[in-house]
Specification:
By secondary structure, the chain is α+β, with helices and mostly antiparallel strands. The protein is built from 4 helices and 5 strands.
Amino acid sequence: MRTLGAALLSLFAALSIAAAPGFAEPPSKPGEVILKFRAGTPQSVKDAILADIQASTIRRFGRIRAEQDRAGIGTDEAIRRYKNHPNVEIIEPNYILSVNRTPNDPLFGQLWGMNNTGQTGGLPGADISAAHAWDVQTGSSSVIVGIIDTGVDMTHPDLAANIYTNPGEIAGNGI
């Protein structure tokens, strides 16, 4: 599990995470809030609110003009005081979010090298921990991966749309 980071904050900054009826509120970092003031809020108002909640800044997210603060008065009290304040756009707990992704490959369960649960009689955990890696990153079209192998199936449905061809390559010249 990771605390709400800059990448996810930009996604959730415009949305207020609220527990739906019948669902528990996600866990959060005790005493921490994510705070964003409305555009045009005078610095004196910002300073007064931060002083009132006894805030110490942990991190600033400049691109979206928000910050992660430790609220000396506690998360719930800080939110109660300022959730409806006209100069506060967002004040919410610093939610702890986790991502659990697995590929949609129907044969993934057979790929012991990716996630070995002992499914073929092998040693559970003796793998490359790919499932954990997918929780962090699932790829980018800007990354070029070179495969050093005896070959690759360029028509494979998982690869065909992503095969890179060197634009300087002269096909069939043997170089």
